[in-house]
Every structure is written in structure tokens, then in C-alpha cells.
Amino acid sequence: MTNHTVKAFDEELGVLSRKINEMGGIAEAMLVEAIDALVKGDKTRAEAVVQRDKALDALQQEIEDLAVVFIAKRQPMANDLRAVMGTVRIAGDIERIGDLFKNIGKRVRAMDSTMIGTRTLSGIQNMARMVQEQLKLVLDSFSQNRPDLAREVWLRDGEIDALHNSLFRELLTYMMEDPRAITYCAHLLFIAKNVERVGDHATNIAETVHLVETGEPLAGPRPKAEDTHYTKGLKAE
Q: How far apart are CA 117 and CA 179, in angstroms?
């Protein structure tokens, strides 16, 4: 293989990586905007989050198209093929993260902003901060080719699960104490589940990064907090 061909090969891989980084930047911004819209009851900002998801959808499709062309042209083997397929998998996880933030935006649009109170939102804000840190760390693990960072994200997933379980019980208590809060708290339950699912997708990305960089899957069952029988039936949208 000539130097020119190798250079072109590397440049095309670089394009895929840059598009993943672009998707990650959009997803991180959507997280901040979605939670801010929730806290402030800002329906205009919530709508902006919903609309921003289209950019992630377009980038995911572009990455898949580029990967198909790359494989057809370059016929990559071993590590290179693993890198291309890993990029496609990561793009799919980030696109799904965008869907979860879009769903939060839709919930905020439908909620009664007069019910908003700091006590009921503090748990979701705390969980969102944890997820934001996980998302940033796993995107850094990809851009810096750091399987050690990916493993750190993988090991910390149980912390988000534990906080989600605690928040679930807290919201159920509010609903039992005040029937007027049932609709509002039901929205928060689904929003909390969406945030928790973002953490799961960050862990998926961590597993992919580790496999691409080392050729080895992360060993053992994924660390999870013990789930309550309440939350097992609650699905993110």
C-alpha cells in the first residue's frame, strides 16, 4: 500500500471520528438545554431541544453512509474494520441519546409549569449532572483513544441507577401525599427514566471504545444497582 493510499485511509477514518465528536457535542448541549428547560418551565427552549434532534439524525445517517463507502473502497481488516464498525455503533448510541433528550423536551412542553418546585427537581438535576459527567468522559475516551477512561465510565453506571431508584421512590411518595401532583410527578418519573437511560447508552459507548482499542470486551457483568420492583416496568420513551 502506497503512502498516498495510507494517508487517504487515515484521513477517511478521521472524518468519521470528527463526525462522532460533532454528534457528541450536540448531545451534550441537548442535555444542558433539556434540564434547563425543565427547571425553568421554558417551553420555547424545550421545543428547541426537540428540533435539535434532527441534526443528530442527519449526522448518524451520514456516518453510516460514509462507513459503507469506506468499507467498499478500502476493505479494512482487523483493527481498522473494528474501528469503522465501532464508529457506526457509537453513532447509533448517540442518536438514541438525542431521542431521549427530545422526549424530555416533549414532556416539558406538556407539563404544567405552575407545579414546578425545586424540591421535586433537585434529584433529577443531580442525576443529570452525573450523566453529563459520564457522557463527557466517554466521549473523551473515544476522541483520546483511552480504554482506561471507557472502563471508568463502565464501572460507575451503578451510581446513576442507585440515584434513579431513590428518586423513583421519592416521587411516588409525593404522589401519595398530594393527588394534585400525580400528573406532574408522572412526567418527572418518565423524565428521570430517560436521563437514566442516557447513562446506559454512555456505558454502551464505553464498551465499544474498550473493544475497539484493546480488542477485548469489558469482562464481567455490567455493574448495576439493585433495581426496585417498581422501576422494572417503567420504560423510557
A: 16
What is the rounded end-to-end Cα distance, in angstroms, of the chain?
A: 48
Give Cβ neighbours of residue 138 (< 8 Å, ≥ 6 apart). 149, 150, 153, 202, 203, 205, 206, 209
- The pTM of this model reads 0.89
Grid coordinates belonging to 4? 498516498
Q: 225, 173, 174: which is closest to 199 by C-alpha?
A: 225
Cell of residue 70, nine digits: 469506506
pLDDT > 90 in the chain, percent: 70
Asked whether the beta carbons of 210 and 142 are under 8 A apart, the reply is no
In the DSSP assignment, the letter for residue 225 is P
CB-CB contact of 157 with 203 (8 Å): yes
- For 99-154, the pLDDT digits (tens) are 999 999 999 999 886 666 656 788 899 999 999 999 999 999 999 999 999 999 99
Spatial separation of the C-alpha atoms in residues 143 and 140, rounded to whole Å: 5
- C-alpha torsion sign, points 207, 212, 213, 216: positive
What whole-number distance in Å separates Cα of residue 155 and Cα of residue 176? Answer: 35
Quick one: 24 exposed, middle or buried, by C-beta within 10 A (0-12, 13-18, 19+)? buried
